[in-house]
Amino acid sequence: MENVPEAHQLLGLYSVFILLFVTLGPIKILGPFMQLTHDADEARTKQIAVRAFALALIAAVGGGFVGKFLVDNWHISNGALTLSGGVIFLLVGLSLVLEQYKPAHVAPAPLPEAPMAAALRVAFPIVVTPYGIAAVIALLVNSPDAARSAAACHPGEALGAKASLHHADPTNSRATGGGPCPIPAHRS
To answer: How far is CA 78 from the centre of its chain?
Structure first.
């Protein structure tokens, strides 16, 4: 189909921000976080929040790049990835609509005393959702250039990387300032 644009041409940075805000955003986290930490003092709540953020960031970026690696190695087509992502989003949407017909929620068990265990309980699956990871993988697979992929690892350098990558090899991680984060080349 000649006139159908590629997926990376359909999503601008604004659309990517909205997609990540909806799937991994802070609004859906506030209620469950407050419910889980309502008995904790302010210092413990901050400690849990910082650790949950760090765990979620590592999981989202790591999961995204592991997913991209697996998609490339298993030769999964963009069409199959788009279809499976659409099914995941459909099921999540249906569960949200049908949730009003479920019985009332039972109060969650109290958080463990260990800060890391409490942060893990907050981070998964409240902060890092399966459909959020699916969105990150789909965005990385359909990333048109290394600068957009770099935004996931080095957000502060993403703007500068865009200019420097015009003259550099997109598979060269040193083009974005080095570091442990691999930058995948565009998938054809």
So the answer is: 18
